Amino acid sequence: GQQLNQSPQSMFIQEGEDVSMNCTSSSIFNTWLWYKQDPGEGPVLLIALYKAGELTSNGRLTAQFGITRKDSFLNISASIPSDVGIYFCAGRYNQGGKLIFGQGTELSVKP
Amino acid sequence: GAVVSQHPSRVICKSGTSVKIECRSLDFQATTMFWYRQFPKQSLMLMATSNEGSKATYEQGVEKDKFLINHASLTLSTLTVTSAHPEDSSFYICSARAGGGGTSDGYTFGSGTRLTVV
Predict the structure, then answer these.
(1) How far apart are CA B118 and CA B114, in angstroms?
(2) How far is it, in rounded angstroms, from Cα B102 to Cα A85?
(3) What digits encode the pLDDT tens for the residues B83-108?
(4) How far is the first Cα of chain B from the last one, in angstroms, to the nearest whole number?
(5) For residue B20, is it left (φ>0), alpha (ψ between -120 and 50) or beta?
(6) Which member of B45, B49, B111 has the closest CB to residue A42?
(7) Residue B36: closest CA among B90, B84, B83, B72
(8) Which of residues 77-96 of B touch A (CB under 8 A)?
(9) Which residue of A has its CA nearest to B44?
(10) Residue B22 at interface with chain A, using a CB cutoff of 8 Å
(11) N or C: which end of chain B has fewer CB within 10 A?
């Protein structure tokens, strides 16, 4: 199936560092979503973006909906050990439509 | 907030048997539910879209006779893996979308079902 191009695939960082990951698509989306998945669990929604150029924060997380509507990034500031997990971006063409997922970014945080 | 319950969380079955996985929206009505399959260290691959009261829409390459989906009520969708084989072993996850929920309807995911076929 179709996937978004998400990078990096994995990151190993020190506690307290900032993290940045992004997704690009050849198609235009009208919604971008960022999820976090812990081992053996389903994804949990972190941030939802609905408008081109939109910049939204959720605590230490900040995400932006690219102005071209073909990309999005997620930043995590001052990382902590519980940030460990796999982060997925997801795009949606229309309200109520299916989600297209990125390949995921596996984040490891060293205390 | 919206909660989706998925059951069972783990199941081991013998080759050739069928397994049913349930996905329930606990505090909202879900007109649409989605079923995904996830292999280790990989992304979620959409298998099918389940609409209440109508037939599911399967993604290309997904065998609808093997993965039976029933969405008989606004709070329950089931996925039945029929005549399971070891290659069907995977992590299956459902997600649900509230009906008529405006633009702010980020879908809620269940906690997944780890299926092992022996």
Answers:
(1) 13
(2) 30
(3) 999 999 999 999 998 755 444 566 89
(4) 37
(5) beta
(6) B111
(7) B90
(8) 91, 93, 95
(9) A101
(10) no
(11) N
